[in-house]
Predict the structure of Elongation factor EFG domain-containing protein.
Amino acid sequence: MHRFRLDLPADVVGTVLPVLAGLGAAPRSSTLRGASYLVEGEVPAGRVHALEQRLPGLTRGEGALEAEFDHYRPVRGPAPSRPRWDHDPLHRKEYLLAVARRVTGRPAR
């Protein structure tokens, strides 16, 4: 989880808060500072980039985001996975054939 500080114009707070919720962020506090709001909270590390990408459009380019690692949290739901893109060394015969092809440059049979 990352801790974030988001400084944004006061008139877009109603637009930004639902987006934060959709990204799994949990705002902890919001403070009115003149014509802007300071929103602080936490957001999953995997969603920080999406927030950075959406922020300029949501705030007319006037929002400023600071985010830093804060703590680990157990994954909720199914754990993220990524399929293997190379040969699986647990399948020894296929793996050794693939390694041999890379070393010798011979095409597969």
Summary: Helices lie at 13-22, 48-58, 92-104. The longest helix spans residues 92-104. The two ends are 48 Å apart (CA to CA). The longest strand covers residues 2-9.
